[in-house]
Amino acid sequence: MKIALVTGGTKGIGKAIALAFLQHGYEVILNYRSDQQTAVATQEEFNMLGYCPILMRADVSDELQVKNMFKELFSVYGRLDVLVNNAGISKIKVIQDTTVADWNRVFDTNVKSAFLCSREVVNKMIADGGGSIINISSIWGEVGASCEVAYSASKGALIAFTKALAKELAPSNIRVNCVAPGVIDTQMNDHLTGNEMEELIESIPLGRIGAPEEVGEAALACEKIIKGKFDFVFCFSDSFAIALLLLLEEAGATDGVTVFGYDNLHKYYPIIRKLNSVDSNLDVIIDYACKLIVSKIEGETDAEEKVEKVFGVTLSAD
What we know:
The protein has 318 residues and is of the alpha/beta class. It has twelve helices and six strands. 53% of the residues lie in helices and 9% in strands. The model is unreliable at 225-240, 250-268 and 278-283 (pLDDT under 50).
């Protein structure tokens, strides 16, 4: 049985991620910082479903507490297969009202915690032949959010952290991925008024906000579905979404799948499907799919011509 640790795993997105891993046969450790009542309630809820997660209390922004948590974890389990760096907080303030203490607390919780936990587990994963680190960021880390400068900056930093660490650890068979959800139905968004929520929903093509369970499945996909298909996809959101769709199709698991993507995804997906019907080498298809989309985004006008020559097909987004 594989072992997974989810930081901030007793509520919201972290709780949904923990449940997704439990449902797929993982032994799950739920980390929490201070809310013991909620932690115990979550553990009991999972117990009622037939699962037995373990609680580990630690402030993951504190170096000593992180070291002690992993020391205890390794003494009990001997290894860790999956680390989910989910712990995070938000701060809703205009920049003039954001104090240094506000800024530091957000970065300590959202970024420093991922650094500390990843650093603590890497040597063990290398010794064990590999592993998976999954960081939970936010769409605000890509596009920014007004009145959430500290939060947006921290989530952007987590995305950059993921990219750099993925390159560093790939030779050691440790995969590092990042999930960047949009607006999700959790307590973190309870501060939004009805009108503010309606405005947000109007900006979402699907006409609704996301559910924590959907993020849980996305995190699980980083560990379970992608593994064994190919080792990594190093590209941006549209490219990754297409790659993931192809993998889901290969696994016969597309029923009921909802894709959160941009217009480019819907425009170029038929192109990639056509390429996939020409060449069965999925790794090559994905590589060219990613290059095609990134090239188109960067304005390279001959990107389609290059792909046409390689595969001998005429590409059309229609």
